[in-house]
Amino acid sequence: MKQRKWLLFLLLFAPYWGWAQAAPNQVSGQVVENSEDGKKEPLVGVNVYWAGTTMGTSSNAAGRFQLERTAQTNQLVFSYVGYQNDTLTIVPGEEPVVVLSASVELAGVDVVKRQKTTTVSMLNSIKVEQVGEKELLKAACCNLSESFETSPSIDVSFTDAVTGTRQIQMLGLAGPYVQMTRENIPDMRGLSSLYGLQFIPGTWIESIQLNKGTGSVVNGYESIAGQINVELRKPEEAERLYLNLFANTESRLEANLNLAHRFKNEKWSTALLLHGKDNSSKLDHNHDGFMDMPISDTYTLLNRWKYFGDDGLRFQAGVKGTTMNNQGGQMEFRPEDALTTNAWGMDMKIRRLEGWAKLGKVFEAYPWRSVGLQLAGSTHKQDSYFGLNRYDARQQSGYANFVYQSILGNTRHEFKTGLSFQYDHFDEQLNDTTFNREETVPGAYFEYSYLPSEQLTVVAGLRADYHNLFGVFVTPRLHIRYAPFEQTVIRLAAGRGQRTASILAENTGVLASSRQLIFQGQNNGNPYGFGPEVAWNLGLNLTQKFMLDYREGAVSIDFYRTDFSKQVILDLEQSPQQALFYELNGESYSNSFQAQLDYEVLRRLDMRLAYRWFDVKTTYGDQLLQKPLQATHRAFLNFGYETQNHWKLDYTLNWQGEKRIPYTGSNPENYRLAGHSPDFFLMNAQISKTWNERFELYVGMENLAGYKQPNPILASDQPFSPYFDSSLVWGPIFGRKTYFGLRFKLH
Predict the structure, then answer these.
(1) 104-112: which pairs have CB atoms within 8 A and are 24 or more residues apart?
(2) 174-206 b/e (C-beta count within 10 Å ≥ 16 → b)
């Protein structure tokens, strides 16, 4: 039956050919070289920047580039090691194809430059880590929540030991404090803040831009710990067909099919992206009576269109639909046991539909001037229960953002300004308690960029918003870039962030326990009786690139401080039988330090080494305590090697220090946990082989040493007792897992 379902899925959608769009203030194109057989081959890692400025980017694996226009010049410079520089005058409405020529031809010598899988621009005022497709392919990357295994900047963990839900952390803070955007449109908010990460398959992703601290005011006011922007595959650049098949030893099966088409007039392009996942086997490797992972199926479909007009008009639109069914709990649980004490079970059904559109105009006579409109809407429905807790929720959201960009007087002074509107309606039902809210937030913003020289860039932004429940609030942001030397960049970032906490959707792990949920909010009409969460973030980072023994390297040092003035606290410290929600009354802060070294230690062997220190404390009751289940010390090591005949090997080692565990001392002795977890190591490895740039086979193993947290479910033998708790997860739940798969592409 399963095989027929997968076959029907592929046959239904394989014949369909489908459409995206760059912003109106951007220029895109391709950089190539002439090969010996006369064909044009893409060049990766070419430096592309506006003449006389520090604004630039680099070409991707397809030789494609995309960067924002500037009012200072319309001359683009193309620079590449071993090739002659080229300068091109950009004409609005055209997508240039630039052919670079080798600067010196030596008999028997090939000049080759390998593109780094993760790069950091030295020109951007904000430190942005550009995670490319090759980085995503280093691990079993089947969705966005699994895309950060080789990134030391992001931590990934499970919310609990029952639902299989992954969550991310940045700067020692939970994922909801990170603003998630899809092509610079806010995404994964509210009910989808946790599960939404699973709804973007890895093979859909072209690149990920990751920046710590507060971002631009153009993208909103919600960024506190940082921003993660996901760029999906562009239909005008993507392969005509891309098929990925994946399976692992835990009976997980996945299939991804990407189809793209560019019409003959080359103004319209379309793409259809399909994803299916199935996990139908009940497994209990640790013999605690509970499924290690829920049985589940997920299906996601995305269709997008893109129009690139000759008159500077740009348009794109897309729609995406997702269904997810998860069922977990005790091995003997059956659906007819739902919400009874016959057996402990969990069931979750999610139905999500979203659509978006972008419309923009670049003025040909004034290429620095542009206008754009972003529109998005979504509906999200979740029906679920966890043991005896029933949780049903609905969310409807709408978003609009109008952006105008131009100059002030001369090209050293640029600005962006606009109006935005965010709408959210929530209906949540937890057992017999209803939590409903409606939020409308119109806002206006202005961002000014000052570029006095190639060494200094200052970007200052200010936005004002009116929240129908919280009133008027102001969000200032400041970013300063200073480059005292050619290979040295120092950046400063500071600003304010504000958000509304969706405390049930963001903390579903506590629902998978016997804890009594206590809400100590006020009867004031605010969400759950609480005010907004407000924090200030200050960050300083240094990037130093170097050349050692003819091989490139970079050292990066970051420090960020986040101070909360208002926060909704989840308190698991007062009693193992309670989960208290209340507003902060005291200090709450996060100090984050990271030092990272990237270097090609041997030819074609890349190393990434990092150390992180977190000092994250919050006031629980009247005590300032370290954040639970968060390691103070972490270390990271990654090696990536690629042979000339397209074998790739990757190895990642993670060390996590001890973590504080919430208080369980009042439980019976059998159901008590130590105050701190032990430290542990995690190792992952993968090997792959590519033939003719079309066909690739890969095999890998996660958690090579097989280390597991013993008894991740407290009182698993008495799931309806007051001591049952599956949310105290500090280490791996699963042992060693092997996976394998294939990728096939038609260009």
Answers:
(1) 111/81, 111/82, 111/83, 112/82
(2) bbbbbbbbbbbbbbbbbbbbbbbbbbbbbbbbb
What's the chain's average pLDDT?
A: 90
d(CA 328, CA 164): 9
Q: Is 167 exposed, middle or buried (0-12, 13-18, 19+ CB in 10 A)?
A: buried
Predicted confidence (pLDDT) per residue in 345-360, tens digit: 999 999 999 999 999 9
Would you state the structure tokens that stand for residue 285, as one six-digit string?
């490797």
Whole-number Å distance between alpha carbons of 659 and 680:
11
The type of residue at 323 is T
> 559 with 593: CB under 8 angstroms?
yes
Contact predicate 72/32, CB 8 Å: no
Q: Residues 2-28: pLDDT tens digits?
A: 444 444 344 334 433 332 333 456 788
Q: How far is CA 404 from CA 24, 186, 372, 417, in A?
A: 10, 18, 7, 5
| R_g of the chain computed on alpha carbons | 26
Compute the distance between CA of residue 44 and CA of residue 64 in angstroms, rounded to an integer. 8
Burial-class residue 240 by CB neighbours within 10 Å (0-12, 13-18, 19+).
middle
Q: Quote the CA–CA distance of 257 and 237 in Å, as a whole number.
A: 16
DSSP letters, 56-101, are EEE--TTSEEEEE--SS-SEEEEE-TTB--EEEEPPTT---EEE--
- E-strand ranges in 366-409 read 366-386, 389-408
Which pair of structure tokens corresponds to residue 359?
Answer: 């419309």
Is residue 107 packed enough to be buried (19+ CB in 10 Å), middle (13-18) or exposed (0-12)?
A: exposed
Distance in angstroms (rounded) separating the CA atoms of residues 392 and 381: 8
> Two tokens at 261?
């088409």
Closest CA to 489 of 60, 126, 52: 126
What six digits make up the tokens of 420?
């935005």
**pLDDT per residue over 272-297, tens digit each?**
999 999 999 999 999 999 999 999 99
Q: CA distances (Å), 614 to each of 155, 611, 683, in order?
A: 12, 10, 22
User: Which residue is it, tokens 């939404």?
Assistant: 196
Taking the C-alpha atoms of residue 504 and residue 174, their distance in angstroms, rounded to an integer, is 14
In contact, 628 and 661? CB cutoff 8 Å = yes
Residue 317 in 3-state DSSP?
A: strand
Global pTM reads 0.85
Question: Cα-flanking dihedrals φ and ψ of residue 213, to 5°?
Answer: 80, -170
